[in-house]
């Protein structure tokens, strides 16, 4: 499928709105993604209002595509609707736990990827903002998310105004395992990461960041232990507040 | 996209193998899915050996498609490879925490959906087995998964030998929210679930299960509080054993 094969993340968009009909059609089609027990444990918040984008911006570290894209979508794990339905139908729900959160998360992320595929096949560009689970508490407040709803993925969408080079991927043999997991030897690791480490842009990153290795950019600058541990605390607290911790 | 619009879960497959080239090509293309910081925090275990399918069967409650499909894929959140690379490159990783598990989970599930889309566009049928996170401990043992690897999704794949009716979906208005989450009133819930509850197959389910409402089939039979809480315990224990709990 060419739109998947040639995919790149798009961060710059034309000043052109996405018609409601188009967006709703893509979302409706995306709901065909597999969903556990056909429960559809997700909600999607559509942000078009510039004032709302500004309010979301701090949670996403003010990445410019958030305010520049015509449409921002926040995909949430949602057990609120289902639990309300159960209670209204004399059924006693038991979904305030980690397993249910993971079930809803898988539903929501399958939907997110399905939407991206459809949007890109329709000529739109998307950017996945991983920051959503870094600051779920802030997003919950801005979007007014009730208990049993947790934001997991934010996608900015618009008509592409750039065509950046495709990013590299690890070789297939580095990711798939036949029949059982065969753990990586030091030689395997060297071989699997050789191409990534050889790329001029990655060598340039190492140079401008004054690190010794490419891996140190990840551990010391982009995704640090301190940062991850602090954000894990927020995430655990959010699971508790949103009632997924019984 | 017709293959998404017309999608249905396929549980019966022809006695026809999937060539390695085809499978690898689909997986390679699926790796174009967005991945956080281009870290590709996932692994895929390919099961073709009937003996291995038999060993996986109990973890999936002996659902027949597991042993009948030519190929079973287990998609895992994987920080093992990345951490090994960091350590081999004088970089001190800090990924033994819940946030990192969620980052890897999102990567793995985006990949899973992307693979399903590509497989279905190529004429294959798939079934998503939600049982994977019910019994991660058993799957870890059978597939020999090391620390920092957790199975999240299992997909059975083969050439379709059935064309079941499409399942229903909730109306768009029940799932999307404009600008902020607008919580559901009792009338909203009635309206959103009316079509689902009106379907003859769902009325039939209620009849044969001797429940009063459709919701009770979910809470009392399919996804019970006791079951979810027991499986949450296993999942928490698995996170601890696989080192995602610091």
Automatic annotation (TrEMBL), chains A, B:
One GO molecular-function entry: oxidoreductase activity
Any matching Pfam family: Nitroreductase
Keyword Oxidoreductase: yes
Entry keyword annotation includes Flavoprotein: yes
Signal peptide range in chain numbering: none
UniProt entry keywords in alphabetical sequence: Flavoprotein, FMN, NADP, Oxidoreductase
Family, similarity comment: Belongs to the flavin oxidoreductase frp family.
Name of the featured protein: Nitroreductase
Organism: Phocaeicola salanitronis (strain DSM 18170 / JCM 13657 / CCUG 60908 / BL78)
